[in-house]
Predict the 3D structure of the following.
Amino acid sequence: MKSRLVAVLIVMAMVFSLSACSLAHKDGAIKEDKDVLLGVYISQKNFESDLEGKEAFEDGIAFFWYQSDNVIYTEAGNGIYDISNKAMDNAFGLSGKLMLDASKIDKIYFGEIFKRPDGSIYTRPKTSLSYGMPIGSKINTNNSKIVDGQMSFYELDIEFVGKLSCKAINVYDKENKLIDTLTYEDVKGIDSIDFSKEFEYVIVESLETDYNGSVEIKRTIYNRADGEFVVLNSMDNGIVNHHTINFK
């Protein structure tokens, strides 16, 4: 009885296998997905199907993608920082970080950016966070894909913070004496700054406001040897802008 049951199961498996093969031949072979994974797209607007062309990005708060020739595209807020691109023999991709103002972001939707063999770009829905994120929480979104033996990938770390604004940029000498104080308006729109020869370090003071309106002062020290300092400001779309200014 047992051997007869085994024989029946084997026959059923063969019939299923042949049926599957017949369907494959009848409908044609399934084509391999040749669309290349380029990066990630973040929006506050829900989308349940692929977005094409301009529509794919017009509602985004940030998108971050790698195209070709080591060129990285970051748009819609310029908030992505610590960007690193990696190109190897059989792999290319990028990584970065993003801060979002939790007081302005209730829902965020993630999409992935792909390029078809004909060069057209589109965004495909991935996942969503449909609740307010606690200040201080962090998430990571990443993926990779192999097409014709070439792997592409992205990785983006996202941190949710309170509303940030720059209060002051205090400049000190070697004796820890305050020699200058700047505001955000003083450095807005510039990429480098030439302090006096006595300059040794700066302390950037930022105000962080939580959901309840409580304000905390955060201070970050940048030494001359660092070569740069960063000013943080929340923008209307929820992106926290990282404005990097080099020391001359």
In short: Residues 2-27 form the longest helix (26 residues). The first strand starts at residue 36 and ends at 43. The helical segments are 2-27, 184-187. The radius of gyration is 26 Å.
